[in-house]
Design brief:
Layout (H helix, E strand, L loop, with lengths): L35 H6 L2 H5 L24 H15 L1 H4 L15 H4 L16 E3 L4 E3 L1 H11 L11 H13 L25 H16 L6 E2 L6 E3 L17 H11 L10 H12 L25
Helix pairs in contact: 3-7, 8-10, 9-10
Keywords: Heme, Iron, Metal-binding
GO molecular function, one term: electron transfer activity
Pfam family, one: Cytochrom_C
Length: 306
């Protein structure tokens, strides 16, 4: 009897700083069917030796990773340093951060919260073609995109210790995810991009549900001594600039829908999330000087700031 061959085709997508993920697909080749007469006359021993039906592919999900399990030694030291940079970015690399935000202001749960742009599995996706740049980007370019946009700052050197250790931490988060696999929980939740924003309603929702943490002007709530945010700024001079993904209505809506108000994920409807995202994303904020270079091939999403 011919051997049964199983082919797995796994596909994934990358960050959008950040867009929702596609579901991975698994294709299985059909087994070669034996002739009917051979099955009917085959001895019981031969029938018993026929290959069993393959087990279903296990769904891999993004899960919060216990940082206490980071290994000891030089590798562990680099990983822990990367985690520290991600959680205290403004303090660790102040010359590269133009506001008080940290990487984990958006990438919640130390960068491993499902549907909050987690880093689990991301390093293996790069180099990756990205429509925003119109070219194949390295992971260093992707990270520096966040520094220039979300941090409203300056890029790290590709070969800097800080860059290497950030990637070391992201890679450690990904240790249980097969390369190229798009785990459940990557990116953000799905949002209906056909919904028309109602900015007036969005303002009302912001005042009702958001100002308690983020302030009336979106200025956030700083820790004593300006040592970092308790709740990050979502508007104003200390927030992300208008070239960041969070300055786009539907990207921000997907993040808000799956994560906000804090501790109450998925409590807003799609329409409410779109409305409040449109209001928030169009509040005053720094201008990204190079956003006119984005989507050079002319395929920009409809909510891109120009």
């Amino acid at each position: 009897m011919r051997n049964l061959t199983l082919f797995l085709l796994i596909s994934g997508i990358g960050l959008t700083a950040c867009s929702p993920n596609n579901t991975s697909q698994t294709e299985q080749a059909k087994p070669i069917e034996p002739a009917a007469s051979a099955v009917a006359t085959a001895p019981e021993a031969v029938k018993a030796s026929a290959p069993a039906a393959p087990a279903k592919t296990e769904t891999i999900k993004v899960t919060l990773v216990d940082v206490k399990t980071i290994p000891e030694g030089a590798e562990g030291d680099a990983i822990r340093d990367g985690l520290d940079i991600a959680t205290r970015t403004a303090l660790r690399v102040p010359d590269h951060v133009g506001n008080h935000l940290n990487c984990t202001s958006c990438h919640l749960g130390n960068g491993s919260t499902p549907y909050a742009a987690p880093w689990n599995g991301v390093p293996a996706l790069f180099p990756l073609y990205r429509a925003r740049s119109g070219k194949v980007d390295t992971i260093e370019e992707r990270i520096n995109g966040c520094f220039m946009r979300s941090m409203n700052g300056k890029p790290l050197a590709d070969d800097s210790t800080e860059m290497r250790n950030l990637i070391a931490y992201m890679t450690w988060l990904s240790k249980d995810i097969p390369p190229g696999h798009s785990p459940e929980g990557r990116g953000f939740v799905e949002i209906d991009k056909n919904l028309v924003p109602n900015r007036v309603n969005g303002k009302a929702i912001f005042e009702q549900k958001c100002v308690v943490c983020h302030g009336e002007q979106g200025e956030g709530m700083l820790q004593p001594g300006n040592s970092g945010y308790i709740y990050p700024a979502v508007a104003g001079k200390n927030s992300f600039n208008d070239g960041a993904g969070m300055a786009r209505t539907y990207t921000a809506a997907a993040f808000i829908k799956g994560n906000m108000p804090f501790g109450q994920p998925n409590s807003l409807t799609d329409q409410e999330a779109v409305d409040v995202a449109d209001f928030m994303s169009h509040m005053d904020r720094p201008v990204f000087a190079h956003k006119h270079k984005d989507w050079p091939k002319g395929d920009a999403p409809k909510d891109v700031r120009r």
